[in-house]
Amino acid sequence: MIHIKSPKEIEEFKVAGALSKTVLRRAGRMVRPGVTTREIDQMVESFIRLHGAVPGFKGLYGFPASICASVNEEIVHGIPSDRMLVEGDIISIDTGATTGGWVGDNAWTFFVGEVAPETKALCEVTLDCLKAAIEQAVPGNHIGDIGHAVQTLAEKNGFGVVREYVGHGVGRAMHEDPNVPNFGKKGRGVRLQAGMVIAIEPMICQGTYRNHTLANGWTVVTNDGKPAAHYENTVAVTKDGPVIITQDTDGPWCPLEGGV
Length: 260
Known about the structure:
Creatine Amidinohydrolase; 4 helices; single chain; 4-stranded antiparallel β-sheet; alpha+beta; globular; disordered C terminus
């Protein structure tokens, strides 16, 4: 069932969105060689709880941490550990905070120092895919218009679009209807209407989109070992156009390098 939010509820929702984006930015500021993904996770959990909220991911379906920390060939659902980041890595960090009964959800891919030009290009195109997809989140369009925007731009640049993992509705729960794939055809799928709130999250691979899950049961990696990027915002469909729920006072776009 798709839950339609009133304008008042969307305004309330923005509190959870702002906290989710603020802590994501703080996580990005920690990204540098020598830092462990566990250290980032600990900061995120402490910051969210300090502000009277609850980490949206910890315990969700049994997930053991407050962030997903996916490094290089890890597409999504990377589990924080004592792994140290090294120069040239990229790390996709997914954060979520629950407060006031609403769940914010967002992700960004950060550079660890200087990265290879082809990796930077992957991230830039994936970010452009997110922006293009958000532009399609207007009443009267369809879910397929969002996926088509992502797929067209990614494949035009020679990158693979993950099929098995998709965006989703967001609200009182982290995952609501409808699913929001990153591939599709214009005019197909659920028709968008004002009051829908969805997480749009392109997951794009430098090589093949084929993937598998590691033995930990969570971490999804590319089959060819090439890097993947992941960007996400929670977006409200309104009569005045798309409204990004996960933004703070610095604006809707987190700096690509994560060095606010």
